[in-house]
Specification:
single chain, alpha+beta, six-stranded antiparallel beta sheet, 24 helices, 14% strand
Length: 601
């Protein structure tokens, strides 16, 4: 087929891998890390895994033997550890999918009438010759990353994302999405759930610690737990502690105490003076798949990758995803109220005390029975309303209300409001349980930023491993009773129980995240903003977003020059910088690279 050969020809022949379809046409093409590719071919059945899955081609062939249709893979996938992209062809039908958490995602478009899927939206846009989706960009400028279902719309016109838990089915010249995975019922008791979660974590860490491997040792529960799990397999592990400027942050002390319990490991420390400031080099583009959602830390992520490579570490475990998975918001209280009202009231009091939620809004939110579509309509209607005077209780389908950035133009706000109303028409809960929906939405919303982190590390030759995003780990954690998985009095009780006896007790016994403000904006971010404010103002004096009519630079300048720039402004600025640098890279720079896999049928 000419269209397929056109796709193949766009990849550099050097290092290019092409797998053939049963028909003889090109099926899978790209530049892959060979150790990530596990193919199996059994007559008319073709299956390929791309990513971390500790099985070989022989084992994969035995698992998929006897497949009669691509739907038969539903049962097979629950037996695969790790996190992978999967491409399968059975009897001429093709199935392409990523993981259930959103870290490994699939995008798709059409080229010369042929459905094409791949793991890079920008690559597919370049192959298809499409431009940016200004309405999707306007939504990001106005409200930042908004999560599912709007995350299915990419920043590229004509390129869509397949939602996690679904696959793209390609039959001849037709393609459609099929939902194959639904979250398990959250009814597993904590003790049994901790044992299952530990088994999943052991498998996830597994062979990710071979050779000269490293692990973050921040002093936080997420990274420290993985570090000690890895040390059980590799006593000569290399740990990395990235110090913060905030002297009140307890992480440094806990990291030092934890390091003493790993005497055979090599401990690396990156001090604040050795790290770029937050918002350093604000005009630097960070990839073209999408605007960066966590812009302020990308220069630091690059430095970490370089530092590890300088010390010979080429594989690094990190705890990204642990907050989303084990410290989710308390939306589960809605379901708990119907079955255990006394426990609900006790836990609600704990959350109110910890977060200072006002009484009447909290009670109102607890008894609100509206669906997820109502929540999206409310966000559209109140997009330009003043922000809440106090932190609202995190009991709704969305944890925090959406508010338009003050510098968004009227046209940008109108486009964003239209998108939110469209979401209200299409939205379906990710789970029938509100707490599970909140958790899965948080995982999906954060995943693109962590995927970008991994690419930053990869530029230095370091592979970033995120075990908390592995499918089996996610399934194990979300199956635990939510009122036992989370608690207002214990910090991440499920993870603490899962790694008890392995990670240090001082880390597991904390009652809160050390030194972490509610906004997530710490002292380092405020310091970095003050150091780089002039460079940021200079960048927006020549703003590409302003050229497109998306922002009012006068309003932006007034907010950035205010005597006190608060956390909400810095969060909105971070999203804005991600959009500005992305748009500059697309319109003033190159259109992208063909160095990632694409799948065609």
């Amino acid at each position: 087929m000419p269209g397929l050969q056109k796709v193949v020809d766009r990849f550099s022949p050097q290092g290019r891998i092409v797998l053939a379809h049963d028909s003889g046409n090109p099926w899978l093409v790209g530049h892959f890390v060979l150790e990530d590719l596990v193919p199996a071919s059994l007559g008319p059945v073709r299956v390929a895994l791309l990513g971390h899955c500790p099985i070989d081609a022989t084992r994969l062939a035995s698992i998929v033997r006897g497949l009669r249709s691509i739907t038969d893979l539903d049962a097979v996938l629950h037996r695969l550890p790790g996190g992978v992209h999967l491409a399968a062809s059975v009897g001429g039908d093709v199935r392409v999918q990523g993981g259930i958490s959103g870290l490994r995602q699939v995008f798709h478009t059409r080229i010369d009438g042929v459905p094409i899927a791949g793991d890079r939206a920008d690559l597919l846009a370049e192959l298809a010759g499409t431009g940016i989706d200004e309405h999707a960009l306007a939504l990001r400028v106005a409200a930042g990353p908004v999560g599912p279902p709007l995350d299915e719309r990419t920043a590229w016109s004509g390129v869509r994302a397949v939602p996690p838990g679904s696959y793209l089915r390609i039959e001849a010249d037709r393609a459609h999405q099929v939902r194959w995975w639904r979250p398990p019922e959250p009814d597993v008791p904590l003790r049994r759930g901790a044992r299952i979660t530990r088994e999943a974590l052991d498998a996830a860490v597994g062979n990710r610690t071979e050779g000269r491997s490293g692990a973050d040792l921040s002093g936080g529960m997420d990274s420290t737990s993985l570090c000690f799990l890895a040390a059980e397999r590799n006593p000569e592990l290399v740990t990395l502690n990235r110090r913060e400027s905030d002297t009140e942050n307890e992480h440094s002390r806990l990291a030092a105490e934890s390091a003493e319990q790993l005497p055979t490991a090599e401990h690396l420390v990156l001090h604040p003076r050795e790290m770029p400031s937050a918002f350093d080099d604000p005009g630097t583009a960070m990839g073209q798949e999408q605007p960066s959602p966590l812009f302020h830390g990308l220069a630091r992520i690059h430095r970490c990758g370089e530092f590890l490579a300088e010390h010979g570490v080429h594989r690094q475990l990190a705890g990204f995803g642990g907050d989303e998975l084990f410290h989710g918001p308390p939306g589960y209280l809605h379901s708990l109220l119907r079955n255990r009202p006394v426990k609900t009231i006790r836990q609600l009091r704990g959350y109110r005390t910890r977060h200072r939620w006002p009484l009447l809004p909290t009670v109102s939110a607890l008894f609100a029975a509206h669906d997820v579509s109502h929540w999206w309509r409310e966000q559209a209607d109140r997009l330009t309303a003043p922000p809440p005077a106090t932190q609202p209780p995190a009991l709704d389908w969305g944890v925090a209300p959406l508010r338009a950035a003050p510098w968004a133009s009227a046209e940008t706000v109108a486009a964003a409001r239209s998108a939110l109303r469209g979401a209200a028409l299409a939205a379906e809960p990710l789970s029938a349980h509100r707490g599970q929906h909140q958790l899965l939405a948080a995982l999906r919303t954060a995943a693109p930023a962590y995927r970008q982190f991994a690419r930053c590390y990869a530029e230095s030759g370091v592979r970033l491993e995120l075990p908390y995003y592995d499918d089996r780990v996610v399934e194990a954690a979300i199956a635990v009773r939510p009122d036992e998985r989370a608690s207002p009095w214990r910090y991440k009780p499920l993870l603490a129980e899962a790694v008890r006896g392995t990670a240090p007790d001082a880390v597991l016994h904390r009652s809160a995240k050390a030194g972490a403000p509610e906004s997530g904006i710490g002292a380092d971010v405020h310091i970095g903003f003050r150091r780089n404010r002039n460079a940021i103002l200079a960048l927006f004096a020549d703003s590409e977003l302003a050229v497109h009519g998306l922002i009012d630079t006068g309003v932006l300048r007034r907010h950035l020059l205010a005597p006190h720039v608060g956390p909400s402004t810095l969060v909105a600025l971070e999203h804005l910088l991600g959009c500005e640098t992305w748009l500059r890279g697309v319109t003033r720079g190159s259109a992208g690279r063909t160095d990632a896999p694409a799948t065609a049928s």
